[in-house]
# Entry
Amino acid sequence: VISYVDTEGVLGSGVHARGDGVTAAELQSGITGKPPQQLALAAAEYMARGDMSTAEMLLQEALTSAGDDARNRADIDVRDILHGLSIIRESQGDWTAALPLRQELLKMEENLHGADKPHPDTALAASHLGVICEKLFMLADARKHHQKALNYYGKLEAKEKEVQSMINLGVTFIKMGNIPRAFSNLQVAVETLKDAKSGVRNDKLLSEALHLLYLASWRRGDWNKARAAIEESLATGYVVLPDFASPVTSAILKAKLQWKNGDHRSAVTLLESTRSTVELEDYLLSFVLSIEAAIHVDLSNLPEALRLTHEALAIRRRIATHTGHPLIIQALLCLAHIYLALNDHENVAATLSEITGLAKYPRTSDAMQQELGAAVRLLTKVAESSGSEGRSVT
# Structure
């Protein structure tokens, strides 16, 4: 997930609240009763030093000092405090704790400026909340908030922020399994960043957009587009995508290219090594396992492919926001193909029946129609190869 969290100017800039060498205990004894703005400014200094625990203590005290009335009025000091607390939670990877803070901030901004009126603060609050929801795999909510931010920035003519929202939407659509929508958003983002007339010049943002366009192109099966996008992204010289951070980015890319070039063994070895040496978040781990499984299918090592796909499926069942999530359906379809290669028609039929059942969930993405069509064709093929009559799939 691409997220720009800029603390400069959020709680104040150029602040010198306390001297160096003041301990947390000494600080604690002297902060009671201080004005919330002073406490927030002091917190900004400690955040700049990387002392998040002291900064958090100051911000919590500032929130108490501000009182419920100021919080209900959504005073600027209170909004700054909540923003600072959320930044600390995000820096710790505690997305669950950050969620209610970001939700409260968006509600405050909408109450102040109007829910349907474009305002920079409302757009930023929606964007931040979208990132948090995406981290928590609340993808429908992430999509809603990123779309809201995109609409606001478009009306505000904040072109670079608008492009950033397109990219954030692209990430969300990739995770939702809606590859056509992801590709469309990312293609527009790349074209805008490359268009001199747009007035946006940000090579880092372009590198990130190109990297994501590579992922979407790969998922579409457009190898030439994928290769062109990743080569252009790497040529910018930027390290991209915190979720795919080095050495994971380079490992996945190198393994995919090795696989595409026929060096299956090296690709498997590299991915196995990456899994054993780098702690991957669940979504990325399921992605790596799926790649490994596909390579093992090419190597005719079907038992290992089956094991890896089951492992990826288990992760996706655990992190998906609803039972009929596209990530689950994609993994089940991979399972069905492996079972078919193993001539295990009973498990093929059972897996495909589960897919068609899950497809009836109202929250299943429209983008899964291609996968569902493939499931129907595969089920018909199984019925024909087993000598039985084709079954009806609705």
